[in-house]
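User: Design a sequence. Structure:
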């Protein structure tokens, strides 16, 4: 009896559950990749940031945290000095 109730309840849950879709970001006004760059010299990804977020106006991300595929190649402010 309990097995029957569990099976019918599980089938009801599966029929009502819709898989969640990932957010594609296609409705954003600003694309984040337009402000992220890859530095060939130090092999890191860096981004220009709004001044109200960070006083330095750019952020450097550790190597391997953000993929460099598709990023514009540009020297980071540290390597330009």
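Assistant: Done.
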């Amino acid at each position: 009896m309990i097995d029957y109730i569990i099976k019918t309840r599980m089938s009801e849950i599966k029929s009502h559950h819709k898989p969640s879709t990932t957010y594609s970001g296609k409705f954003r006004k600003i694309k984040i990749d337009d402000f992220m760059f890859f530095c060939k010299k130090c092999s890191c990804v860096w981004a220009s940031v709004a001044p109200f977020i960070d006083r330095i106006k750019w952020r450097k991300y550790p190597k391997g945290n953000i993929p460099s595929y598709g990023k514009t190649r540009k020297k980071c402010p540290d390597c330009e000095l």
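The chain is about 25% helix and 20% strand. Strands lie at 36-39, 44-48, 58-61, 72-73.
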